[in-house]
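Query structure, 286 tokens:
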């Protein structure tokens, strides 16, 4: 059932576990995530990016995902989030399409501009009783930053500024940078756990970590103890889906029914999501 994301993450924060927020771009991926959540009795968040909305059509993909949640989630709490919205208009559109959380990513803006944009979205979203996630600090993408001139201290979240941003915007969740990175970008060898602890002590709202698809059980456990209540997972989901497509359609493939191939890819996503739910400690939390 489509459920309040704020309630989902506040329960995780209180319970000492984390919820997976899984990126979806088609029906099969959405089904795989929800099927895993039902099997493991775990709350989850499905999230859609601007690029997925451009690819599939904003209304089309939103309606597909909402129907999957309605038809397959049974009594499992499932949220629907806009991932990495870059401006007010896309956040507004997502709310109008029925998303019940929006992320406004002002992390590449100046600190003041980030606060102003986040507050604008929060003021609009809260009137509709929709939760908002902000981001402070930079979680880099491959090709975005010159590796030869990389200063992680300049990229990571400043705890004092995090407190100021939360107080001035009244945002519900904060995505932080502690040496994590999106996709296949080389991360900091060891996350800045001390920084995370400082943020947790200054900021009382649930914290979110992006770019942790490849994190070990040990690092995930440390992150949860440090206040992380939600892990975004995109790369691992893509790989699970695409690798199964490659395996099923090798040069000797005689399958002519795309449903058989897409069904195998869906099952692969389900297995990967189950693995992540177990790592995050979200099983049997419903």
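Result returned for the query:
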């Amino acid at each position: 059932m489509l459920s309040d994301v704020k309630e989902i993450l506040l329960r995780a924060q209180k319970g000492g576990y984390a919820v997976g927020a899984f990126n979806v771009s088609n029906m099969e991926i959405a089904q795989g995530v929800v099927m895993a959540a039902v099997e493991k009795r775990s709350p989850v968040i499905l999230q859609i990016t601007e690029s997925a909305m451009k690819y599939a059509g904003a209304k089309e993909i939103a309606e597909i995902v909402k129907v999957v949640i309605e038809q397959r989630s049974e009594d499992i709490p499932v949220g629907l989030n806009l991932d990495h919205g870059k401006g007010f208009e896309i956040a507004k559109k997502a709310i109008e399409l029925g998303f019940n959380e929006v992320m406004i990513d002002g992390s590449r803006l100046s600190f003041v501009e980030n606060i102003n944009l986040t507050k604008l979205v929060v003021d609009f979203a809260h009137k509709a009783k929709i939760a908002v996630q902000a981001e402070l600090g930079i979680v880099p993408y491959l090709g975005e930053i010159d590796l030869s001139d990389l200063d992680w201290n300049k990229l990571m979240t400043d705890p004092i500024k995090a407190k100021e941003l939360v107080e001035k915007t009244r945002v519900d969740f904060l995505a932080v940078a502690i040496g994590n990175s999106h996709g296949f970008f080389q991360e900091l060898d060891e996350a800045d756990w001390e920084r995370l602890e400082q943020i947790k002590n200054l900021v009382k709202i649930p914290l979110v970590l992006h770019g942790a698809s490849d994190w070990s059980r040990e690092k995930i456990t440390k992150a949860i103890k440090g206040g992380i209540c939600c892990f975004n997972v995109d790369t691992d989901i893509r790989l699970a889906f695409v690798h199964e497509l490659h395996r099923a359609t090798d040069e000797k493939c005689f399958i002519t029914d795309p449903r058989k191939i897409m069904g195998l890819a869906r099952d692969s996503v389900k297995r990967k999501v189950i693995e992540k739910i177990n790592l995050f400690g979200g099983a049997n939390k419903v």
